[in-house]
Amino acid sequence: MRIASTFKATKKVLITATAISCMSAAAQASSTDILFILDGSGSMWGQIDKVAKITTAKDTLSRLIDDVPEGARVGLMTYGTQSKESCTDFMTLNAVGSTRDDIKSSIAGITPLGKTPMALSLTLAITQLSKTEPTDRQKAVVLISDGIETCDADPCSNAALSQYLGVDMKVHVVGFDVDKEAKDQLQCIANAGSGQYFDAADTDGFQAAMAQVVQVAQAAEPAPEPVAVSEPEPEPAGPVITEFFREDFDGVELSDNWTVENANPDAFIVEDGNLLMLSTRGGGFESAEPQNLVTYAGDLPAGDWDVEITYTGEYSTNADRLTLGMRKDEANFLATSYYSSAPGTGCLKSELALAKMSSGTQDREGRLFRSNQRSCYATTPIGAENWATIQEDHSQKPIKLTFSKRGRSYSSTVEMLGFTDADGDPYVVSSDKYTSLRSPGTLAFTVDRPGRNASGEVLMMIDSVVINEVTGADQ
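Structure tokens predicted for von Willebrand factor type A domain-containing protein:
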């Protein structure tokens, strides 16, 4: 598969460092977005050289902010500053592109208090940074921490998300007065994010490490040694994918691109770049009046297309479902869904499903994605897992559910960004295909809780909806 690119073959090309790296170092630095995450946990009150670590960190970072080239864009996050016990205590203080004075003012206002939710902070930082325009700018997350994750999460896996979002991003880490356990974890974060780790045992070491990491965050990849490249083989034919529409939910309410049928305003809100949807009832597309059916009001590409919805969810009810597809009414639709269920015998699982309802007659097929045991009616390539780990991953690693049209055939895939199989490859599960001779309806999505014996609230945090036009695909 190739992404909207063209290629011209040459008989023989000599690639040199001069040809590849024609920009000056200043020009390279000016095309960088840097998002700092400054540790605001209670342990930052610990002293080094008779000065609180937070004081040293704030003073050093404030000075370095002025040294970052004017063309580079900078932002700031922190965690642990609002509550002693919360594991969701993290926030963006200044979006990338804020003024240096505003960022320094925010730095000055940070007061350490609570825990160290690094994993969720990294997920937010990486997701936000991946969406800063233009997306082809070099991007870097710089995490500054004096300790280990304290919220029973795996920040290494979350840092790996930076390598799966289609942008040039690295995660660098500065460890300030850390023990071996924390150092190992912080090094793991940097490695997973294709970045570098800098260790600082005292004030002088911290100041030096911070100066280094700021330089590294702006550095372009080194140019390769000259190498002769023979005429390449022609690229294999494949589909060309072009972004047709994108919704990042950046406002304070849904844009005019959407309408909400059977709206319950208490069960959805646009907030902090996400569409939050809540449900305590079943139904979905098969319901006569599905609650909060979010319907696309725009046009779709004339030919083939993919619709991608990216989100995280608590998946705490064992009946959490998000459905995406084309719907005319409860008796006529073609849709995919990703959901959790507890069918019995101790089995807990998540599945991808594709369903076609035509004049009230339904065809449906499901594919197992993750499960807690091998007795869940099927096996997965990754085998049985701890269900608590699976639930935690759903709340931290974005799920990408894709609904595709090729000719008159419809299919779907699901993957969890940053989650890989045993070979280190993205773990993706695909459905079969269903055919519809006529359009099965209007593009829509919704969230519900279909389990009969389920209790509790389904909460999904939808980050984006993207429609891609696809040309040159096999039917």
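Residues 1-29 have pLDDT under 50 and may be disordered.
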